[in-house]
Design goal:
Length: 111
């Protein structure tokens, strides 16, 4: 089953998206966008920039768990992962984004 982008309008009126793998797991979450058009542009940026592993930065949260961010060519962060229990799980998460993002369909979801 292919992945999908779920685009939502938050309670504050801004838009964001989650990229979900075929199994329904959220593998990337966006920032908040002022409008729907900005959110759609963010999705296209994920599609374009997720092809190269060099566009992903691996970091650690406050508890020392690894996570990754996906950056655009201008170094702006366009998505963040969940925190993972291990670096091997993190690498699988990056591979999942690389595999799912290019062809994922976009679905609008009511919040």
């Amino acid at each position: 089953m292919p992945g999908k982008f779920e685009m939502k309008k938050a309670k504050n009126g801004k838009y964001y998206f989650n990229l979900k793998a075929g199994n329904g797991e959220i593998i990337l979450t966006s920032q908040m966008y002022a409008d729907k058009g900005g959110c759609e542009n963010g999705i296209e940026s994920v599609r374009k920039n997720s092809a190269g592993e060099d566009m992903f930065d691996t970091l650690e949260d406050k508890s020392g768990k690894p996570y990754f961010v996906l950056k655009a060519k201008n170094s702006q962060v366009i998505g963040r992962s969940e925190s993972y229990s291990s670096k091997s799980s993190l690498k699988k998460g990056i591979a999942s984004v690389m595999r799912n993002a290019p062809e994922a369909r976009v679905v609008e979801v009511e919040s």
